Amino acid sequence: MATTAGRGDVGAVRADIEETLGFVPGFWELNDADLVNEWPNFKRHAFEETAIPPKYKELIGLAIAANIKCPYCQYFHKSAAKMHGATEEELNEVAFLASWTARYSAIIHGMDYDMDTFEDEFERMAEHLEEQLNADD
Question: Membrane-spanning residues where (predicted)?
């Protein structure tokens, strides 16, 4: 894949988009300054190697898309996750986890639960779980 074009050259950025995607999709028709700033970040995280493997990035994106209820994002991230080898079982688990996080967030917020108490309790749980893991070794 070609290297990302320089941030100041809109012509080079458009050419890089076309080389990377095969054409310049309509949703990339941003004003020149935004396009020059946005494309390198998108390209890096969508197509280049980063700390998070591509399939995991797309599964994370799908969970977020489900929560913000964006059909464009859902289609994009589900399709990209499949391109990176995500199975139906993984996609179904992501759907559950997306709902699970939102559900418990609603419950805890609805309780107006004290954040300091929550953090302290989490640390206690983590210590207990780590002790159990170490005992199994």
Answer: none
